[in-house]
Amino acid sequence: MTSAAVKPGRPRSERARQAVLKAAAELLVDGGMAAVTMEAVAARAGVSKVTVYKWWPSRGAVAVDAYCDHYRQTIVFEDTGDVAQDLQRQMKVMLRAFSGRAGAIMAELIGQAQSDPGLRETLRERWISPRREATLLVLHRAIERGQLRGDLDLEAFMDELYAPLYFRLMLQHQPLDQQLPATLVAQALAGARR
Amino acid sequence: MTSAAVKPGRPRSERARQAVLKAAAELLVDGGMAAVTMEAVAARAGVSKVTVYKWWPSRGAVAVDAYCDHYRQTIVFEDTGDVAQDLQRQMKVMLRAFSGRAGAIMAELIGQAQSDPGLRETLRERWISPRREATLLVLHRAIERGQLRGDLDLEAFMDELYAPLYFRLMLQHQPLDQQLPATLVAQALAGARR
Amino acid sequence: MTSAAVKPGRPRSERARQAVLKAAAELLVDGGMAAVTMEAVAARAGVSKVTVYKWWPSRGAVAVDAYCDHYRQTIVFEDTGDVAQDLQRQMKVMLRAFSGRAGAIMAELIGQAQSDPGLRETLRERWISPRREATLLVLHRAIERGQLRGDLDLEAFMDELYAPLYFRLMLQHQPLDQQLPATLVAQALAGARR
Amino acid sequence: MTSAAVKPGRPRSERARQAVLKAAAELLVDGGMAAVTMEAVAARAGVSKVTVYKWWPSRGAVAVDAYCDHYRQTIVFEDTGDVAQDLQRQMKVMLRAFSGRAGAIMAELIGQAQSDPGLRETLRERWISPRREATLLVLHRAIERGQLRGDLDLEAFMDELYAPLYFRLMLQHQPLDQQLPATLVAQALAGARR
DNA sequence: AAGTAATCGAGACGGTACGTCCGGTCTTCCT
DNA sequence: AGGAAGACCGGACGTACCGTCTCGATTACTT
After folding, report:
1. Residue B7 CB: number of other CB atoms within 10 A?
2. Per CATH, the architecture of B72-190 is what?
3. DSSP string of C104-125?
4. Contacts of C174 (CB under 8 A, 6+ apart)
5. Which residues 161-190 of C have a C-beta within 8 angstroms of D?
6. Angstrom distance (rounded) from CA B141 to CA B135
7. CATH 1.10.10.60: does it fit domain A11-68?
8. Cβ distance B42 to B48 under 8 Å?
9. Among A165, A152, A162, A25, CA closest to A101
10. Are A78 and A89 within 8 A, CB to CB?
11. Per-residue pLDDT tens digits for C12-21
12. Which of A3, A136, A165, C124 is deepest in the core (most CB within 10 A)?
């Protein structure tokens, strides 16, 4: 009846969880994914390997968790009244972050996820989805205001805007310069206005 | 005139090169990147590990080389006279390929490249650049014909078209369905026509 | 009193230790030192290489350990009352052993120790020293009985007796025949009696 | 008639032979046997590996050859008229040499020979035998002069004198100090005089 | 002068073992 | 029931030498 069925035995150590995330974040920042081995994380956190395995299925999972915990930068969307403005500002924030350490690490995380389906799932849930949902709000708002056509394929539209950033981040065939958001927004919106 | 500078010593074994690429391609196809270990490649090719290391710096490099060798599908661009047609057809060919084994492997290759700058370089040179250059030809042709504005940022434009495919391939937040090319081309061209 | 300082963690596997020694001894007997590679020992013992490295620093160390374990022939010294008899009998036992497989292996072990100081140390502690100490007892007993002069340099004396056996074993310039002990004892004792 | 049957083809390069011996000796002196790899010798000599293999069967063979070439110290036996004097002086010369680099290397050579019968053979021929024969001369001379008994087992006698030096060199259970020759000669001769 | 034959340099090759690293799993005791 | 400690098996890493092999280039003696 009582939902919170009190579990027997020693409860999970919150201290251990924090220590693991902290250790992983540090390793991640100055050594990239390569440095985030279960061995190293456990050692640095002063925790046994088994404990890490108990709560995270793989080193990738620890890394994503630590990353999201460490870079939990607010997904700021101001409402300027102009959808172009809103999108452009948000993209600039993201681009600025991706120009630094956070970008290199995100690239490695997505990279790692390509050979670990579970990690891809986690990455989507913890990083991608929240951002896309926030963007969707902006776009719906713009449609209501009549700034955008109502028949747009919003998923494809968002990909046109954001995928180039991730693509350049990962392939580095072109630089991630500051006017890129403006260009992308301009070109994408040109055919999307009502 | 150009004396072919005959190098001393035993010449490189073409047989070994072929065997390695073949072995790597096979391993890649039925096992993904995880199966492409230097050890396995060498064993399967009937070649010593040292020989592999001699000509390829890393397992990633072997894999990319083998991939490009194996999937050297022609980058077909018909000239239909209509830029939208041309782009859409090419994208469909690519999308079809990426829906199968080749897509999963490409995702892993890009993934691997995130923790190996040399590999990223190779991937750009061997896979990305040739395709972008072919696309550039199409776009320039369209501009000359007056189908596209002349002041477009072509690099950004190409990213708007192709990055979504790679992005969906890697994140799998949305399916790679067959009408995606049409949608992307339509939305992107809407604001790009003269 | 001395609390046996219970160490934390999983205790060392006695099973693994035995298996390694057994495997090494077998390899040693039918293949000599050349067959005792860390790889082969580990494989034959059904143990991981790391485990072997954990407890033995080198293949030489494993070999010596296995040798002493395998050929832990009693260092029998009967007390016949006559020092010449005692020495001669002991030397004959040793010579008989060295005429077979054990001799060839011991030669290889000493050989290996020439390029591995740690191994030389081990060899001295595990093989040479116990035998020399047993011999010292016999000599001291003889001195007390008045069978030998008290001012002998016992270390040099023991070398005169035993070094020729090892020397012939290693150089094979002369055979290790059964009357050698008698000759050596006779000549050495001739000038050593009181 | 002319014994030196002139062989066709390019004659062996004396330059290469010298270069190999020189290179091997240098490597031997500052790096021991471990440094004398076929690879290193060839590289240092500016000679191809095949050339080395052509004239020496193994690295051990090169090393012994280089050693004997480098340390071709005269086997001096003065004839003082007293056999004890003669032996002791010769042993002191040898002991002095063995206290330095030459000793360590000789130990390694004998060590190496334990797993290479061909090398043992070479070592005997090039190093041991000449010295034993010179010693035999001294002993025969002493017998003629009536300083030694005629029924001695000379081979065993020589072993009693010299084996301890090699034994201590290799096992290092006791130091190779300067008064050792005197002790050995005294004890050995005590029972060997007429 | 042309032919023959052995040698030489360079260096690629298949192979074996090295010593290390990490991933996961296990066993033991402590809390 | 956790958790810390740490030993364990397995697999791959990248490297070092081994001994063999193909090359083209030399260097003599033989016709």
Report:
1. 8
2. Orthogonal Bundle (1.10)
3. HHHHHHHHHHTT-HHHHHHHII
4. C168, D155, D159
5. 162-164, 166-168, 170-174, 180, 183-184, 186-190
6. 10
7. yes
8. yes
9. A25
10. yes
11. 899 999 999 9
12. A165
Contact residues on chain B for A113, CB-CB shorter than 8 A? 111, 170
Q: Looking at the C1' of nucleotide E6, which residue has the nearest alpha carbon?
A: D9
| Spatial separation of the C-alpha atoms in residues B128 and B124, rounded to whole Å | 5
- For chain D, give me the number of helices (H) and strands (E)? 11, 0
The counts of H helices and E strands in chain C are 11, 0
Give how far A45 is from chain B: nearest CA, Å.
24
Residues 6+ apart with CB under 8 A from D95: D165, D176, D178, D180, D181
pLDDT single digits (tens) A66-109? 999 998 876 776 789 899 999 999 999 999 999 999 999 999 99
HEC profile of chain A: CCCCCCCCCCCCCHHHHHHHHHHHHHHHHCCHHHHCCHHHHHHHHCCCHHHHHHHCCCHHHHHHHHHHHHCCCCCCCCCCCCHHHHHHHHHHHHHHHHHCHHHHHHHHHHHHHCCCHHHHHHHHHHHHHHHHHHHHHHHHHHHHCCCECCCCCHHHHHHHHHHHHHHHHHHCCCCCCCCHHHHHHHHHHHCCEC
Query: Which of D95, D160, D189 is the best mutation test for C, with the most CBs of C within 10 A?
Result: D160
Nearest to C126 by CA among C111, C110, C138, C141: C110
Q: Are residues B172 and A111, on separate chains, in Cβ contact within 8 Å?
A: no
Residue A124 in contact with partner chain B when CB distance is under 8 A? yes
Report pLDDT digits (tens) over D80-127. Answer: 999 999 999 999 999 999 999 999 999 999 999 999 999 999 999 999
What distance in Å separates the CA atoms of residue D41 and residue D56, rounded to the nearest whole number? 12
Confidence of residue B2 (pLDDT cuts 50, 70, 90): very low
User: Maximum CA pair distance of chain A?
Assistant: 62
pLDDT one digit per residue (tens) for chain D, 194 residues: 433 457 777 877 889 899 999 999 999 999 999 999 999 999 999 999 999 999 999 999 999 999 999 998 767 777 899 999 999 999 999 999 999 999 999 999 999 999 999 999 999 999 999 999 999 999 999 999 999 999 889 999 999 999 999 999 999 999 999 999 999 999 888 876 76
Å from the C10 CA to the F10 C1': 19
- Tokens 């072929």 sit on residue: B18
Those nucleotides of strand E lying less than 7 Å from any protein Cβ are 4-31
Q: D110–C170: do the CB atoms touch at under 8 Å?
A: yes
**At D32, which helix (H) or strand (E)?**
helix D32-35
Task: List the structure tokens of D35.
Answer: 């440094």
Distance CA C178, CA C95 (A): 7
Q: What is the pLDDT of residue D191?
A: 74
What is the value of pTM for the model shown? Answer: 0.88
Which residue in this structure is represented by tokens 């024969």? D133
The rounded distance, in Å, linking the Cα atoms of C128 and C142 is 21
Beta bridge partners of residue B148, listed in sequence order = B193
| Whole-number distance in Å between C68 CA and E25 C1' | 34
- The amino acid present at D102, given as its one-letter code, is A
In this complex, the residue of B124, B163, B189 whose CB is nearest that of residue A191 is: B189
CB contact (8 A) between residue B157 and residue A187: yes
Q: Which two tokens stand for residue B72?
A: 């050297």
Domains of chain B: which residue ranges? 11-68, 72-190
